């Protein structure tokens, strides 16, 4: 299950960056294209975000993480590049 979590974390981080890129780069130049991309990117990111949190909760009990580590891992999904940091710092040695 940890391998699945690492894959979901990577995909969640990439989708978060795609959402920001769509907002910061595409929107100012082409609003129609921005609106066309917003739903599929946003939906993918939403599904991956919920999956990330559910898997983190399941792994908290399976891996016996303490609450601090669990909190940092969950907060990593809210910060750009956070999931990449979590993977490097907390999931490499597991």
Structural notes for this entry:
It is a multi-pass membrane protein. Keywords: Cell membrane, Membrane, Transmembrane, Transmembrane helix. This is Integral membrane protein. This protein is mainly alpha-helical. The chain has one domain (1-91). The chain contains four helices and no strands. The radius of gyration is 15 Å and the shape is elongated. The termini are close together.
Keyphrases for this structure?
94 residues, mainly alpha, 4 helices, transmembrane helix, cell membrane, DUF3817_TM, transmembrane
Provide a short characterization of the protein structure.
The chain crosses the membrane at residues 7-25, 37-58, 70-86. With 94 residues, the chain is mainly alpha-helical.
Number of domains: 1
Main beta-sheet strand count, sense and barrel state: none
* Straight-line distance between termini: 12 Å
Reading the helices and strands in chain order gives: HHHH
Strand fraction equals under 5%
Q: Any idea what the radius of gyration is?
A: 15 Å
Oligomeric nature of the chains: single chain
What is the residue-mean pLDDT, rounded to a whole number? 93
Q: How many runs of DSSP E, i.e. beta strands?
A: 0
- What's the number of helices? 4
Low-confidence parts:
none
Shape: elongated
Keywords: Cell membrane, Membrane, Transmembrane, Transmembrane helix
Transmembrane segments: 7-25, 37-58, 70-86
Protein name: Integral membrane protein
Membrane topology: Multi-pass membrane protein
